[in-house]
Structures are given as C-alpha cells and as structure tokens.
Specification:
The chain is of the alpha/beta class. About 45% of the residues lie in helices and about 25% in strands. It has 20 helices and 26 strands. The strands form six sheets. Strands 1, 2, 3, 4, 5, 7, 8, 13 and 14 form a nine-stranded mixed β-sheet that branches. Strands 19, 20, 21, 22, 23, 24, 25 and 26 form an eight-stranded mixed β-sheet that branches. Strands 9-10-11 form a three-stranded antiparallel β-sheet, with no helix packed on it. The radius of gyration is 47 Å and the shape is rod-shaped.
C-alpha cells in the first residue's frame, strides 16, 4: 500500500508541473502578465541602489518653460551655457535626452557656440533617434545636426522597448544601422564617463563585452538582446535639479560633482512619461516616469553591473520548468509519510522556504529574478492533488472496511460507530451482554464426505443466511469458528433488550435453517436429504468486550465466564433436548416472549456447580405475553 501510494504521489508530483509548463506555453500572455507583475513587486521591495550617487538629472521643467519662450526652439547658446556650468560644477559627463535634429534657419552661430562648449567639456553625449518600422524592427538612425554630431564625444540612441503591457522593464544597448553600430544613451554615457570609446565594446554569443583596461566586463543579454533595468526606485528617486537653476547657478555646491548628468524634458507639456514597474501608486499599478529618468536608471543598472554587482536577469524557460518539477516532487514526497490531517504542514513549510531560498540563491547569489507563478502553483496544486487523492483513497478504504464490517454488524450500527468511534473503546470494558453460540451437528462427518471445495460452499451459504438474521436483530457476528457462529447482542451499541433480540434472532435462525434445507439447490449441494441440523445456546451475563490480541494483530471480541458457559450450553442442544438452549439469566429477561421448559440443573464442563438451563420450544402463543 505504501509503495503504491508513493508511486501515485510521485506521479502527481511530475504531472502537475508538466501540466503547468504546458499551459504557460499554450497561454504565455496570461502567465507572463502575472509573473512580471509579481516579479516587479518582489524586486521593488528588495531593491538597494549603491550606484544612485553616481548620477543626476537636470530636468527641463515647468519652471524653465515659464522663463523661456517654449513655443520657439531654444537658442543653443543656452545649452552651451548649461554645459559650461555643468563642467564648473564638476560633472563627470553630460548626456542629452534631446535629439537636436532641426538647425536654425538663419542663426547658425548658436549651433557653433553649443558645439564649442561640448568640445571644451570633452565628455558630452547627444541623443539620436532610431525609427521603428511597421513590423516592429528598427530602421535608420536619425542623427543630430552635423555641427553637433562632429563636436560631441559620441551619440546615444533614445529608445527603450515596451513589454506587452506597455511597461518599460528592459533596455536595448546596441543598435546596428548600416555599417555603423550605435550604443544606447545610458551605455554611451557610461563609456564616456569612464574614458572609453565604442571600439572598446564588442557583441557576440548573446552578450556584450566592455574592454576596461586589462579586464573584459561582460553584459549578459536576454534572448531578445536586452537587459532588465534595475530601477533604483519610483519616479523622483534620482536626484533631479531644474535646468533653470543650473543656468543661474542656484544649485548647492558639490551637488553634481563626479556625477553623470542626464539632461532632458521633465515638464508635462512634453508628455515624455512612460509606465515603469516601481508601483509608487500602489500594488499592481505601474507608476509613470520621465524618459530621462529611465535613461538615468539604465545608467545605474550598467554602473552597478559592470562594477561587480552583476546584471539582473530572468531564469530560462528550461530552468523554470526544472524548478517547477522540483517543487512538485518536494511537495508530493512528504505527503507519503505524513498523516492526511498533517498535510497542511507541507504548505506552511514549503511556500516560505521557497521564497527564502529563492531570494538568497537566485536574487542575492546569482542576480536572477526568481519565478513565482509556476513554482508556487506547483506546490499548491500538487498539495491539493495529493490531498484529494488521499481523501478519495481514504474514502475507498473506509468503504471497503465498512463493507467488510457490515458482514458482521448491522448497517445502522456501522453508521453510528462512524459518527462516534469512542463506542469501540480500547482496550475494553466489562459489560452486561447476551452472547449466542451456534454449531452444526455432526459437521465433521459431513465435511469428510463433501470434500474441501463443497464444504466451503455449504458453509458460505449457511453463514450467509444465519448472518443476515443476526444482523437483522442488531447482533454482531464476533467470529466464525469452523462451522460455529459466535454472535454478541448489545455491543457495540444497544437497541432495546439485547436478551430478547438474541432469542428472537435464534428463533428466526431455526426457521431460516428449515427454509434452507427445503432449497433444492442447497440439498443437492449438501447431498443429504435431511439437510443440516444445528444447536443454539444463549447466555446473558457480564463479560469483557474490547480489542484483544498482540501489538500487530488485534481482535474486537468478548471473553469471560459468561461466554464459556454459552459454549457449554450449546452442547446440550441435541438429542431429545430442544435445539435452542438458554441460561437462567436469559430466561428471566425473555420468559414473557417464549415458551420454554426447564431442563433443571445441568452440569457443564468447566463449571464446578450445576447451572439451570431452559429449552425454548418456540415463541409465546398469545400476543400479550409476547409484548
């Protein structure tokens, strides 16, 4: 049984994960939506951004718009002044989240002044726009005006891919365009700040390698060629200063020292807001963030990853499937050895254990965003499947036991015992009961004549008829002893006068035997024209009832002097005596319902003193006496 149960639970532990993995491939959008949201919430709650103090934002905000005429192109002399002020403030590099695509129609001088400021700073990156075709692929890159293109350190692409729920979680770092390859604004800002060039970056085998002195720093990419952005926090986490305040020198001393400064639009009129997975507006609601701050967070991701922190990535589909299988098996195995009522311990232990271990081994040690939906679903659903299996198996087992029990105890008694198992007290107690002992006369000779096979068939037919009568009168068949029957009345539950029930059952057993002997098929099987004859004895008295036997084998039965006496009295039910013998105590309880004759004091084996016995001739003749 244990081996079978183990095989079934292991089967469930494999099948449930397999079904879950199959469903994720069949309905990827449904599972991915919830997985990404849970992953967002989990990562946001565990985020620590050591590189946050390496970056700052200069936002072209509403206050700046009020100062300048926002309806016209801003004079590039203003940008030149901003660059000079940032250099004075000690900024490491400047990255513009502006494309500068349109030159002024008449005043070219302003562009040259801006370009000169950029050349003087030496570490300026200007944004470029990559177009997207109708099929979702990337097209040609739109560069800034020529005078700026030639004066800055490099160009940076202003692009972040959207996930299916329109949330920006990833960053694309490299953009091949014709014979050239461009870097994302954040990557180019990092290279510029560190004194590196695009020649120090190579891409192959699903990763980007940055040559940093004697070292080669890898950036592992996903299958889509992207990295996950490790957002430092919700909108406003990165230190942000007004464009106008920087122009007017109104920022604190040292505020921008040794920081990479991203300059971009933050005013609402620019509508440069995107959804990001930082949940600043509540669980399940992605917050919005300006594009320039998304670039700054991408830079933080690169700065941390390339300086030894590692890059955050997701577990591969094969890894998720294997982890799901392990969770299913780890859930199924304990259920083989735990009692069904202790099954909840599996959930209480495994779910928190998964969160703790996955946090440590995946996020902390390997920088992998742990999967949640499939492993947790495998734990819960496998537990429920095993629980249902155990429940159904227990029902089947109880049904089998009940069916077997009903061969010995009346159906309504079995139902009551199921409601109140305490009725079967262990190890037992002494009670006043009536015991019935029945035996077939001369059965040894009959068995010798019939042979083993026919003897068994005769006994089965006989026991079936006798047991039905006993159960009808609320008796319990204690055991079959060869061709004898030992039945108890009043245990495990009593319904009325158990002595009267025993006598009534004995009278009907005699009638049932007569009908059985009249059955042609039974007579032919027995091979004796006279049929079977049996003797029955009933005694009422005090006896011990309960579970008796060894540690590994117990029997619910009755023992005591009253039981022994009944067995001895049954030996008198032969010859000229009636075939139903009752003791004096039984007669006292049933004399109004029967006609009996006294057999006087009789001596039985095992008794030093004679006992009074009565032979039952039949039921009382008048109804009042029977009542």
């Amino acid at each position: 049984m244990k081996a079978t149960h183990l095989r079934v639970t292991l089967f469930l532990g494999c099948v449930i994960p397999f079904v879950l993995v199959f469903l994720t491939h069949s309905f990827p959008g449904f599972f991915q939506y919830f997985e990404t949201r849970l992953g967002d919430l989990y990562f946001a709650s565990n985020r620590d951004a050591p590189a946050l103090n390496t970056v700052a934002i200069v936002g072209f905000d509403d206050k700046t718009l009020e100062h300048f005429d926002w309806r016209a192109l801003l004079d590039h002399r203003v940008h030149a002044k901003l660059v000079r002020n940032l250099k004075k403030a000690g900024a490491r590099a400047v990255a513009f989240d502006f494309a500068f695509l349109r030159p002024h129609a008449t005043d070219q001088k302003q562009h040259e002044i801006f370009a000169e400021a950029c050349r003087d700073f030496g570490k300026v990156v200007i944004g470029s726009i990559v177009t997207e075709t109708d099929d979702g692929s990337l097209g040609p890159v739109k560069k800034p005006i020529a005078v700026l293109d030639s004066s800055v350190n490099a160009l940076g692409i202003l692009f972040h891919p959207l996930d299916t729920d329109s949330v920006i979680r990833r960053a694309k770092l490299r953009f091949p365009s014709g014979k050239e390859t461009f870097n994302a604004l954040a990557l180019q800002a990092f290279l510029t700040a560190e004194g590196l060039s695009s020649k120090d970056v190579t891409a192959n085998d699903g990763k980007i390698e940055v040559k940093y002195g004697a070292d080669v720093l890898p950036i592992e990419l996903s299958a889509e060629g992207t990295i996950l952005i490790s957002y430092a926090g919700p909108a406003g986490t990165v230190a942000t200063y007004s464009y106008l305040d920087v122009l007017q020198g109104k920022i604190p001393d040292g505020a921008l020292r040794d920081r990479v400064v991203f300059v971009g639009p933050t005013a609402k009129i620019f509508q440069d807001y995107r959804q990001v997975p930082t949940f600043s507006q509540g669980i399940g609601v992605a917050s919005t963030m300006t594009g320039v701050e998304i670039h700054a967070n991408t830079y933080i991701t690169l700065a941390e990853g390339l300086n030894g922190q590692g890059f955050l990535h997701r577990l591969s589909p094969k890894g998720v499937a294997l982890l799901t299988l392990v969770c299913g098996l780890l859930t199924a195995l304990p259920s083989t050895f735990l009692e069904i009522y202790l099954g909840w311990v599996v959930l209480v232990i495994l779910l928190p254990a998964y969160f703790i271990l996955s946090h440590y081994f995946f996020l902390v040690q390997m920088r992998i965003l742990p999967p949640f939906i499939l492993p947790c679903a495998a734990i819960v659903l496998t537990y429920l499947a095993v629980l249902i299996h155990r429940y159904l198996e227990e029902r089947r087992r109880r049904k089998r036991v009940r069916s077997m029990f009903e061969h010995f105890v009346p159906t309504h008694v079995v139902a009551r015992l199921e409601r109140d198992p305490q009725l079967l007290q262990a190890p037992g107690m002494e009670r006043e009961l009536s015991v019935l002992f029945s035996d077939i006369r001369d059965f040894t000779a009959i068995a010798e004549r019939l042979g083993a096979e026919k003897t068994v068939r005769v006994l089965n037919r006989y026991f079936e008829v006798m047991t039905e009568v006993i159960l009808k009168h609320d008796g319990m068949v204690d055991k079959f002893i060869g061709d004898a029957i030992l039945a108890v009345f009043g245990e495990p539950v009593s319904k009325g006068n158990h002595a009267q029930q025993a006598v009534q059952a004995a009278l009907e057993m005699r009638q049932a035997l007569e009908k059985l002997n009249d059955d042609d098929e039974f007579r032919q099987l027995l091979g004796a024209p006279d049929g079977l004859d049996s003797g029955i004895a009933i005694n009422t008295g005090s006896m011990f009832v309960g579970n008796l036997g060894a540690l590994k084998r117990k029997d619910y039965t009755v023992i005591g002097d009253a039981v022994n006496l009944c067995s001895r009295l049954e030996g008198l039910a032969k010859g000229d005596n009636p075939r139903l013998i009752i003791s004096e105590t039984t007669f006292a309880a049933t004399k109004k319902m029967i006609e009996a004759k006294s057999l006087g004091e009789v001596t039985v084996k095992g008794k030093s003193l004679p006992v009074v016995a009565y032979g039952v001739l039949g039921p009382a003749r008048n109804e009042e006496a029977a009542e």
